[in-house]
From TrEMBL:
Every Thioester reductase (TE) domain range: 8-239
GO biological process: long-chain fatty-acyl-CoA metabolic process
Single GO term (MF): alcohol-forming very long-chain fatty acyl-CoA reductase activity
Protein name (database record): NAD-dependent epimerase/dehydratase family protein
């Protein structure tokens, strides 16, 4: 039986591509897309692109002007009763994804916005599943093995992105007894394992930005001697796994780490990307505290195109256990690709688009 879907976060990269994977894997009746008023024109273009590429009618989509920071998501009151009777699946993707975001902005969108979405989904009479996009880093500064079943462990946080995503997940987790809910915690997102396409050049791409900025230097050192492991996950794995788990009966009420089950040490990732991009290997090591002091200077951050906050993740010694995700994906054919196989495609996409302002994030 065809389902009726509702997405926040459109026309963002994640919503756009998740919808494409959804259309390929599920029978879709209709898709409602919540869009900020100033994004309507772009949303219309993206809908037409999806319809053309996936060979479906654009009439299966409906754009709804709204805002998650408003009660009832700012959706026109006259259409609310109809939506409440029709929608079977809600994907809440809208959030501020920025390690350097100010607290007030992050709190309003990530926490208040999620509170409003939570209130709204409880009014949906046909709801089969509420899928919330969180992050593995709701664990904050915790170290050691981190389980999918854990949330509040008294942790502290590295930035306002983490703390507000944690507070939002606490709100969603509390709904599990009343609403069929699935929480998705991705690791650090990197490019599509086949095309290299990505959302933006952050996370592991900060390393590539660093290499690009220093490529004329006689050598480029490692940063720190941390024994941390990388937690980089190709975006297509996240899409495929999310669509599958959103419809699996067993996943109602569960939280999943969509993380790399076989991660590489950060120093290996650093060397792997440098060799792929510059055909060179790192030489020597600069202490992390020295690198962080340098990135405390605005002109250094802008020149290197690296956020200071990213260094915190390169030395976090944490293991994101994904046993439940691996178990519930068994038999689906969906597996996380080996980062070693993804790196060449990822680097090639970066090389072709490194000067495209649509991919480089603003660094102040």
């Amino acid at each position: 039986m065809a389902n009726t879907y509702f997405f926040t976060g459109f026309p963002g990269f994640i919503a756009n591509n998740l919808i494409r994977h959804l259309i390929r894997k599920q029978e879709v009746n209709h898709i409602y897309l919540l869009v900020l008023p100033h994004m309507m024109e772009k949303a219309e273009q993206v809908v037409q692109s999806i319809a053309n590429d996936e060979n479906i009618s654009s009439e299966q989509f409906q754009l709804l002007s709204g805002d998650i920071t408003q009660p009832d998501l700012g959706i026109e009151e006259s259409i609310q009763p109809y939506l409440q009777e029709q929608i079977t699946h809600v994907f809440h993707l809208a959030a501020i994804y920025d390690l350097a975001v100010p607290k007030a902005i992050a709190y309003n969108v990530n926490v208040n916005g999620t509170r409003h979405v939570n209130d709204w989904v409880q009014k949906l009479t046909a709801l089969k599943r509420y899928i919330y996009f969180s992050t593995a880093y709701v664990s904050g500064k915790r170290t050691g093995k981190i389980l999918e079943t854990e949330l509040d462990q008294g942790q502290t946080f590295k930035n306002h992105y983490e703390s507000t995503k944690y507070e939002a997940e606490v709100l969603v987790d509390a709904l599990k007894e009343q609403v069929p809910t699935t929480i998705i915690r991705p690791g650090v997102v990197c490019g599509d394992s086949k095309t290299g396409e990505t959302i933006k050049f952050d996370g592991p791409y900060f390393m590539l930005n660093l290499f690009d900025s220093l490529k004329k230097f006689p050598f480029i050192p490692y940063i720190g001697k941390s024994q941390a492991y990388g937690n980089f996950v190709p975006v297509d794995y996240i899409f495929l796994a999310t669509v599958y788990l959103a419809h699996a009966e067993v996943s109602a009420g569960r939280t999943y780490h969509l993380t790399d089950p076989n991660p590489y040490p950060m120093r290996d990732v650093y060397a792997m990307l440098m060799e792929e991009y510059l055909k060179r290997m790192p030489k020597g090591t600069i202490p992390t505290r020295v690198a962080k002091a340098g990135l405390s200077l605005s002109y250094m951050r802008k020149w290197l195109r690296v956020e200071k906050e990213s260094l915190d993740y390169s030395r976090l010694i944490a293991e994101y256990d994904c046993t439940q995700a691996q178990q519930d994906l068994k038999g689906s054919g969906i597996e996380c690709p080996d980062f070693k196989d993804v790196a060449p495609v990822m680097v090639n996409f970066y090389r072709e688009n490194k000067n495209n302002p649509n991919y480089q994030i603003h660094i102040s």
